[in-house]
Amino acid sequence: MEIDGQSNGATWRWSLLLSVLFLNICVPSLVLSYGVLWVHLVNLEVPLWLGFSTPTIFLLTYGFTQCWFREAADSWGGSVGYRVMAAIGLTVVVVSLVICAFIPLYLHPIIYGVLGGLGSSLISAQVDAVIFETYDSRIGIIRGICCTGQAVGQSLFPHIISALTNYYGYSFSFIVLGGIMLQAMPAVFLLKIDESIRKSTSYSRTADLYKSFTGFHNDCVDNYYTAELQLHDLSKKCWKSPSDDNLHREDDEVGENTEVVGTITPPPSPEERRRNIFGIDILPDIPEESEESEEDIEQRIPGKEMSNSQRRLSIAIKRLNTLGDNLDDYITKQTKRDSEDDSSGHDGKEYSELEVTYDNISPITDIHREKLFNSFSFRCQSTITNIKRRIWIPSYRMYRVRRRLLYVIYSINDTFTKPLTRSLSCWKFYPALLLSFAKLCLTAVSLMLLPMIAQQVRPNISMFETNFLMSLHGFTWICFLSSTPWLAQTPKRNFKYVAVIGLIVTTTACFVFAETNNHDTFAIGCVISGFGYGAVTSCCDTAIQDFVGARKWPKVHSTLETLSASLLALFVTGLSLVMGQEGGFNYSMFIMGIIMLAITIVWSILATIALYETKLRYIRPGRRWLL
Q1: Cβ-based burial of 625 (10 A; exposed 0-12, middle 13-18, buried ≥19)
Q2: Which residue spans traverse the membrane (predicted)?
Q3: Both 477 and 381 in a single domain?
């Protein structure tokens, strides 16, 4: 098969793999490690809700722009397009960090969240497009490597941010952090696809959708019993003579220097009815109609038969003669009428005075034209006409504005409105939305609250130990990602079971953090949370895609991102009202644990039903079966 050949012959492209890994280490750490910045921001007597809203705004901007950038990445792609757009995204991220060093603290959530989310979304869209174009046969392994890079960044950046803040101060540490992020620019320049390798139609980001709709293939020559039209090679078609046509002959018997002996079907004769490849009769050419019949032409030349070309020539000559006579008549009549008008109206002057109005301007000489254009009435009427034209007739600039406005409206309709109406009508969309919302909650809420909970433990945990425990969280995340080769070989229908296990573990971790009152309990919660977070982030997208189906996944993908980010914003707004109370961080983790428990129950029921429908329903005594 072609797919197997490309899968086995594809190279790993180590330079591109290292660049993708380095970008996943740096860029997502702006959200994963923001809890350390929040601790220093609170020490500056900034309200809690202000720092807590920054990663939410970041993810909200990311969710609303990712669907736009993902669709536009195909048109931006190419040998230069991916790198240019990724470089622009990285520039936006660096600019947002530099701006945060010179603006008031209450503006940090807007600049850090909006510009940082916009740039990260642009980089992520280009990286995903390059990955799908290059590593489509090993996409499971590459996704695991990307998650490993994020876990490494989540382990390293808390220490880097704490060191920068202690040495340069809170504000100026953003400048140095922007310089560190700028070091990822060489990795952006390595985002290049190999255009020499042309992939088939099934090798794309919609490969699952393509395989679902594929019914017939035109690649096999021996497949004579199909309902599709077989394509012919027009290089074997002889356009000069039908007798030399090799299109209907067998390929094995046609050669450059060999004579064709046998044919499948003989060439059609001119007497036979001709048909095209669709079975429709080809009608003969209809001769042009003439004004006089053939009998009249033959009567002019008795005893001599005229050919078709001669008849057509004679008819054309007759038509030209008739047209020439008519033109002579028209010219003669016009000349006589003009001469009569001139003789009757001529008074011996060089020019005649004419009454000229705005509706009928017909100057005869230059003097008339000069008098007309210099007149006050003409100037007034032209000014009024220009004013009316500017008011009532839109210019081309206004036309372009209206056209772009319509384009934006249609894009919003196609990107948000139509997918939203289709998704809300499907019941499978709601469990998928809950799982996507759980993933965002673990990213923007759980990781944010870890440093703040560590500061309230008695005795207090130092900032160095807090960073070490967050690195422990990332290390346990990497430990789960070591099972990526096994997950890559696992069928997609089994990813929902791994996602349920991850939800159970993360729910347990939330309740552990809610009851944390010492160092040991906090460390145990970090270890448990790392395993659960790794399971959820690794299997969330694949489990949702398998649950909603390959055909519906492209329709609900953008809606899942936008609605889950909107739900996250509402949830964080509610939690910000609770954090100001005593023990508000532990109580927030308790509320999050209840929500995670509800999502876990829903997906456990769905996984149990799927297990029964696929395995337990058809099991027989003494029969071996596997998941």
Answers
A1: exposed
A2: 12-36, 48-69, 81-104, 110-132, 139-161, 167-191, 432-454, 466-488, 495-516, 522-544, 556-578, 590-612
A3: no
- What the block records as the tokens of 256 is 């450059």
- Percentage of the chain modeled with pLDDT above 70: 68
Distances (CA, A) of 617 to 491, 601, 608: 19, 22, 12
Task: Region of 561 please: left (phi>0), alpha (psi -120 to 50) or beta.
Answer: alpha
Q: Provide the pLDDT confidence category of residue 10 given band limits of 50, 70 and 90.
A: low
C-alpha span between 454 and 585 (Å, rounded): 10
Find the length of the chain: 627
Phi, psi dihedrals of residue 275, rounded to the nearest 5°: -135, 150
Q: How much of the chain is helix, strand and coil, in % rounded to 5?
A: 70, 0, 30
Distance of alpha carbon 63 from alpha carbon 68, whole angstroms? 10
CB 526 within 8 A of CB 35: no
| Pair 514, 618 in one domain | yes
Same domain, 382 and 516: no
pTM: 0.67
Nearest C-alpha neighbor of 502 from the set 464, 541, 530: 530
pLDDT digits (tens, 9 = 90+) for 57-84: 999 999 999 888 887 777 776 667 788 8
CB–CB of 246/238 below 8 Å? Answer: yes
Please tell me whether residue 320 adopts helix, strand or coil conformation. helix
Place of tokens 């007149």: 375
- Tokens 């380095």 belong to residue: 22
Cα distances (Å, whole numbers) of residue 365 to 350, 360, 368: 10, 15, 5
In a domain, 334, yes or no: no
pLDDT in tens, 320-375: 777 766 666 666 665 444 444 444 444 444 444 545 454 554 545 555 556 666 67
Token look-up 């880097």 returns: 160
Q: Indicate whether 464 and 534 sit together in one domain.
A: yes
Q: Are 131 and 139 in contact (CB under 8 A)?
A: yes
Residue 48's identity, in one-letter code, is: L
Residue 48 and residue 76 in contact, taking contact as beta carbons nearer than 8 Å: no
Calpha distance 4→8 (Å, rounded): 6
Query: Exposed (0-12), middle (13-18) or buried (19+): which is 29, by Cβ within 10 Å?
Result: buried
* Secondary structure (H, E, C), 456-475: HCCCCCCHHHHHHHHHHHHH
Amino acid at 285: D
Q: What is the mean pLDDT of residues 506-520?
A: 90
Radius of gyration of the chain (CA): 39
231 in Cβ contact with 237 (< 8 Å): no
Boundaries of domain holding 154:
10-194
Q: To the nearest 10°, the Cα dihedral for 203, 209, 213, 218?
A: 0
Same domain, yes or no: 368 and 478? no
Q: Would you call 47 helix, strand, or coil by DSSP?
A: coil
